[in-house]
Write a structure and sequence with these properties.
Low-confidence stretches: 4-24, 99-110, 304-341, 381-388
CATH architecture of one domain: 3-Layer(aba) Sandwich
Distance between the termini: 125 Å
Shape: elongated
Strand content: 15-25%
Keywords: Membrane, Signal, Transmembrane, Transmembrane helix
Protein name: Stage II sporulation protein P
CATH topology of one domain: Aminopeptidase
InterPro entries: Spore_II_P
Pfam families: SpoIIP (PF07454)
Strand order of the largest sheet: 2-1-5-4-3-12-11-13-8-6-7
Oligomer: single chain
Helix content: 40-55%
Largest sheet: 11 strands, mixed
Number of helices: 12
Length: 402
């Protein structure tokens, strides 16, 4: 009896581990799912395995939840229209930002390391038009997309740890294998953010787009809601899309919220799975898309996205940066803030003097009078005090002389 009970428990445990609730990853039947709304309109397409409870945020920020799945069609209801302005804060600039930064405690102004980690769970994923086939074990075209992402981030002053570890074969257990890679990156590099780069499996028009006159493949964010950090990662994804919509409208295709997914996002509060194009898009367009997406990351992580070069903060030569926080970056923010404040006081005082006297000549005369008379009078009491302090000893000396 006990042996039967043990066997049942083991089988149940295996089923729980291998069930979609444990993983909720891509479909492996070569097809894809279409999500339709209550009126039967197509609102989303994905190569991911769908189940009731999954949610999607479309490019125009309408959020749907899947209520049932029949074959390749998922039926969804509209939950809300998300106001992404609530997730985006315009970076403050100019004198006011300098002044506020000076007043804030040092702990509040402290930035992270400026480091980003990148890896690929599905190291075989490729782009058919460019790579010839959709899967190349251990050497997928996805690596070149990740490398382009790393290069673009570095050009913006970020430090990047790019892992080319292989996690084949392409199955649900690949996430268990890549978990060790993610853990090692987090432990060794202590990054501000970590990205797992993939590509989707849908028709080319789903991700195809044109931004700034160039053909690109769009980016999808994937959030696993199964783990303990699901809500935190969801808010993080909304912040990314809000910033992307400001910087490059239309670049982010949408966000997929997997009810049963985790994707190792429990390991880091800023962990994100990205899908850059589909296997039906060419790799060059995917590289262009991820290059534009790199523009968004410094804003999200609170870093400057100023171009590098010989005159840029932190630059040592024309080839690039010495890194964030380097001595070559010049004066600190606090020093610059003090300079701004002193400069404002001087300019303000000069303007007040000019307005109160009515002209440059009168202002000059008043300033001269202040320096020669009022400033001298300010110092005079000290001089008299020193003389008074010395009087007793002088009188004593005169008595001794007598």
């Amino acid at each position: 009896m006990k042996s039967r009970l043990g066997a049942v428990l083991i089988i149940g445990l295996l089923l729980a581990i291998l069930s979609p609730n444990g993983f909720a990853h891509e479909r492996n039947d070569g097809s894809y799912a279409t999500i339709v709304d209550e009126a039967g309109n197509n609102v989303y397409m994905t190569g991911r395995l769908l189940q009731p409870g999954d949610q999607v945020l479309t490019e125009n920020n309408r959020k749907y939840e899947v209520v049932r799945v029949e074959g390749d069609t998922a039926y969804a209801k509209l939950i809300e229209e998300v106001d992404l302005s609530l997730y985006y804060k315009e970076p403050e600039q100019g004198i006011l930002a300098q002044f506020k930064g000076f007043l804030e405690p040092a702990t509040a102004r402290a930035e992270g390391s400026g480091k980003v980690a990148i890896y690929h769970t599905h190291s075989d994923e490729s782009y058919v038009p460019t790579d010839g086939k959709e899967s190349i074990l251990g050497a997928g075209g996805i690596y070149k997309v990740g490398a382009r992402f790393a290069k673009e981030l570095e050009s913006k002053g970020m430090n990047v740890a790019f892992s080319e570890a292989k996690h084949d074969p392409h199955d649900d257990m690949a996430y268990e294998r890549s978990r060790r890679t993610a853990l090692n990156l987090i432990k060794k590099e202590q990054p501000d953010a970590i990205f797992d780069i993939h590509r989707d499996a849908v028709p080319p028009q789903v991700y195809g787009g044109k931004i700034d006159g160039q053909d690109i493949s769009k980016v999808q964010l994937v959030v696993g809601k199964y783990g303990p950090t699901g809500k935190q990662i969801e808010d993080y994804a909304l912040q990314i899309k809000a910033a992307s919509d400001k910087k490059h409208p239309g670049l982010v295709k949408g966000i997929f919220f997997a009810k049963g997914g985790d994707y190792n996002q429990d390991l880091h509060p800023r962990s994100m799975l990205l899908e850059v194009g589909a296997h039906t898009n060419d790799r060059e367009s995917a590289e262009k898309g991820i290059a534009l997406f790199a523009d968004v990351i410094p804003t999200i992580l609170g870093k400057s996205s100023a171009p590098t070069g010989p005159n840029a903060a932190g630059a040592t030569n024309a080839d690039g940066n010495a890194g964030l926080g380097s001595a070559a970056g010049g004066a600190s923010g606090a020093t610059k803030s003090i300079g701004w404040i002193l400069g404002l006081l001087i300019v303000g005082g000069a303007a007040f003097l000019l307005l109160s006297t009515g002209g440059l000549k009168e202002a000059g005369a008043k300033l001269k009078n202040f320096a020669s008379t009022e400033f001298a009078n300010f110092l005079a009491p000290k001089s008299r005090k020193r003389r008074n302090d010395n009087e007793p000893s002088e009188q004593a000396d005169r008595k001794d002389d007598k």
